[in-house]
Amino acid sequence: MIPLMKNAFSNERQTREELARFVVDAPRLSMDVQCADFEREFAQFQRAKAAVLFNSGGSANLAMFQALKNLGTLKDGDKVGFSTLTWSTNVMPIIQLGLEPVPIDVEPGTLNVMANTVRERLRDVDRLAALFVTNALGFAGDLDRIRDLCVEEGITLLEDNCEALGTELESGLTGSFGKMASFSFFVAHHLSTIEGGMVCTDDEELVEMLKIVRANGWDRNLTADQQRRWRNTHNVISEFAAKYTFYDLGYNLRPTEITGFLGLTQLRYLRGNIDRRQELYTALEAVIRQNLDLVPPERAHLRLLSPFACPVITRSAELRDRYMAQFSGAGVEIRPMIAGNIQRQPFFRKYVPTEHALVGADFLHDCGFYCGLYPELTESDIETLKSCLLKY
User: 134 forms bridges with which residues in the sheet?
Assistant: First the structure.
């Protein structure tokens, strides 16, 4: 059996031993210095000014939209474009917070929204207030052109970089092109804290609001100067009253010190993890390119690829069934192409009455799947995966 992921962590045994010692010796396990240190070091890795840690990637997505609503950047009824090949918790906050989701098609070649697919949607939409792109399975669209288009059109650009940590275009890292970007540290991702998520941004006002959103709407985790400003604005004159004063809409999305500790531990191995993922994918890609049944993803515009998984895209639904049988028969665990065309999901049909024709997303929904790709794969595992990609 080749599962989607073999271990919960990089350097599994050592990490578990270090975690056990930390839990025994830590003076505090609720959010504290480990979380703050992880935020600082992750921001440095991502080349961002700041990072805010959450209890999951889904929470990070929710917090980004709530922060934008709290600040007035987004308002009830605003149209928000999103990558149609995505995950449920990228779309649910749009619906939950009273915004209007507008699906943007993807190009099958890149698996992602491209500037031209955004322009195409803009022809029949009055205005998009925001655009939330998903960098699917470690690949990405032409994010530099998408960013320029958003600036031109006055659109707030957000990225879901949960599956593409470390992928890089010539013009920058994925997760650095928008106003904010979310990251996931679930066990199957590049960096595991068991559960966990992050938002990176260069906007100080958003950092402040994200921390308010994360902690029930209060100022507990703000600096002394920020607390003083909020309290003066709302005439909160005593420290006693300030303990339970709530300034804007929020949730309890806080991580624990275990999350912070694991994040710091796993950051030590992240660069090697990324390099190994690219090396393994390159070996499989060589086989994919020789098989005319398969469509190799385009990545010439990427300087570095940090794949979350190995996508398998066949030229027809019938061929997909055949190759899925080859993988399953060889004991390889496989999954659909994320959530496919999200319009075809039950929750979306329940809450969104309008359906758009999305040729690219439908093709990947019907003709794509993926298998796991991670550093712990052995040479024998890779040979098995190569054999599953051959045409028989």
Answer: 160
